[in-house]
Write a structure and sequence with these properties.
This protein is mainly beta. The chain has two domains: 354 residues, no CATH class; 94 residues, Immunoglobulins (Immunoglobulin-like). The protein is 9% helix and 45% strand. It contains two helices and 39 strands. A hairpin with an 8-residue loop joins strand 31 and strand 32. The chain is elongated and about 105 Å long. About 11% of the residues have low confidence.
């Protein structure tokens, strides 16, 4: 009985191995993509994943893949990209930090989460190594509510770098001269939203308490890195907006006043100062060289639209002279206008398509940017800058495009292989799988086509001996399971010619010898022998492929049963 059990276990094991192999072959497709966005970078970018097994595809403006791969939760990928516009698609939410802060580290930025907000309970950020030429580099966490429990973890080692409780308006500040905090990807987890600032330079926009980049309450920090002072700028988005700026620590009043739409008030700081900005209507707040450095300061930051997002329809942006204003479109036929807010002069009006941008030189002024479709606005100077890029996730709902299939041979005969080749394209989410579905007029069967390079997929169909028609169609899936089905193609299959029967050779009658002339009467002529037709050739014995499989399976089953019975009776007779 033990041997019988062993045979059964062995058979089941072999069957499971076959099933696992089939499942493995099926799962070798890339995880789905579909969270698509665009970004401009002056020099490189860092991808930050918020989930395990997040699959990324990054393409340049020509559609050429710059990088693709999988990242787990909290891991980053530093991409040495050239300056330009890129698209990124991923299977799960993410953030991306444009620039190269790991080498060009005199930068400043607030982190944003996977929803594009500047305050969150779950933030990932990259802390650059500080430049030894400058002191006062800090990593700062701001709290907006009482009893906020905060934990900061080194993503690579899982070591807790700091843990504590912050109340409303309080902050945690870490001097980055401590090497433990340098060149780190950190995870900030808390029970209530906080913001996280990497302060190695000015040139950043400040999130409001809601996580949007316009609002009524802001906590900020300004100091004297790198040119001896920093500028705090408050930008009005509505008329008659009352503003109050105070020192967060001492509660001393710094400024109180009124701003109208498109107006800016700036305060200059020459020593480390924690700041609170409050207003009765939405404003935007930046720490950016505007009044004290009117030209050519290496920095860049995204402007906020009126609703507090990095992508929108109406923006105000301060600018330094000699820099650039870059406007990136996220949809085709986007009408954009750029106006000097100070003089009300229209500077540019035009139409941009998706992934196109307008880049114009800047003066020391305030710009108003409006559009009929979503755009982002980046203001800066030079290429030495880093900022978290806008996130505008679009979900791909378009199926792949199936080209015209080519089959060889054009006129197949029975039992002949027919090779089908087809080009399938899906620029947004990528092709997951192409199925060749075929029929002999009785049953439809599916074959997974093989990718053969480029956009081409191929598969072979073997026609049956009795088949007179071959029908097939193609089914293509992208990585979000959007599906396209081609029209049906029908081929006439020429049957195999039957062998021509060979006639049975007739035996010639023996000639009758001529009789000697006698006086007897002439003999009657012999009747001509009749030729019997040959029997038709017998039809050759053939087997359908699936019949062979059934027979083999039957033989295996019979053999296993026979072995089992033999062992059973042998054991019983002992």
């Amino acid at each position: 009985m033990k041997k019988i059990k062993r045979i059964c276990i062995l058979s089941i094991t072999l069957l499971l191995l076959l099933l696992v192999s089939a499942m493995s072959a099926q799962s070798e497709t890339a995880p789905p993509t579909g969270l698509n966005s665009l970004f401009y970078t002056p020099n490189g970018t860092i991808l930050l994943s918020y989930s395990n097994n997040t699959y990324f595809v990054v393409k340049d403006s020509l559609g050429v893949i710059s990088w693709n791969g999988t990242l787990d939760k909290g891991t980053i990928m530093q991409l040495p990209l050239e300056a330009g516009i890129y698209s990124v698609s991923a299977s799960k939410p993410y953030t991306l930090l444009v620039g190269a802060p790991q080498t060009e580290s005199v930068v400043g930025y607030f982190a944003i989460d996977a929803n594009g907000k500047g305050t969150s309970k779950d933030l990932y950020s990259y802390i650059p190594p500080p430049d030894p030429l400058y002191a006062g580099n800090r990593f700062i966490i701001f709290s907006y509510e009482e009893d906020t429990n905060v934990t900061v973890t080194d993503v690579n080692t899982d070591a807790v770098l700091w843990q504590g409780i912050l109340n409303e308006s309080q902050h945690f500040s870490q001097d980055l001269n401590n090497s433990t905090w340098q060149n780190k990807t950190v995870h900030v987890e808390c029970n209530k939203p906080v913001s996280a600032l990497c302060y190695l330079d000015q040139g950043f926009i400040v999130p409001s308490s809601t996580g949007l980049f316009t609002g009524n309450l802001f906590y900020a920090f300004a100091s004297n890195i790198t040119n001896g002072n920093n500028d705090l700028n408050v930008i009005g988005y509505h008329d008659n907006t009352e503003i109050t700026i105070t020192n967060t620590i001492s509660q001393a009043l710094i400024w109180n006043g009124t701003l109208h739409t498109g107006e800016v008030h700036s305060e200059v700081f020459a020593k480390p100062t924690y700041l609170t900005v409050e207003s009765n209507q939405s404003v935007a707040v930046t720490v950016d060289p505007y009044p004290t450095w009117p030209i050519m300061y290496q920095a860049a930051l995204y402007a906020s639209d009126v609703n507090g997002n990095f992508i929108g329809n109406q923006f105000f942006a301060t600018a330094r002279g000699g820099g650039y204003l870059r406007i990136l479109a996220y949809a085709n036929d986007t009408n954009v206008s750029v106006t000097d807010q100070t003089t009300s002069t229209l500077l540019w009006n035009g139409t941009l398509n998706r992934m196109e941008s307008y880049t114009g030189p800047t003066s020391h002024t305030v710009y108003k940017i409006t559009s009929d479709k979503y755009v982002s606005v980046l203001e800066g100077y030079g290429g030495w800058s880093s900022a978290f890029a806008p996130l505008y996730y679009t979900i791909d709902t378009q199926p792949p495009t199936i080209g015209t299939p080519i089959h060889v041979p054009q006129n197949p005969t029975a039992t002949q292989d027919v090779q089908v080749n087809v080009d399938v394209i899906d620029d947004m989410s990528g092709v997951q799988m192409v199925i060749l579905s075929h029929s002999d007029d009785t049953l439809w069967q599916n074959i997974t086509m093989t990718w053969s390079g480029g956009n081409t997929y191929t598969a072979n169909i073997t026609t049956l001996p009795s088949q007179t028609q071959l029908k097939y169609k193609l089914i293509a899936y992208d990585n979000l399971n959007n599906t396209a089905t081609s029209s049906q193609t029908t081929l006439t299959v020429t049957p195999q010619p039957s062998p021509t029967p060979s006639p049975t050779p007739s035996s010639s009658p023996s000639p009758t010898p001529s009789p000697s002339p006698t006086s007897s009467p002439s003999p009657s002529p012999s009747p001509s022998p009749s030729i019997s037709p040959s029997a038709p050739p017998s039809k050759p014995f053939t087997m359908e492929p699936f019949s062979v499989l059934f027979i083999v399976a039957g033989i295996v089953i019979v053999a296993l049963v026979a072995m089992g019975l033999r062992l059973y009776f042998k054991k019983r007779n002992q």
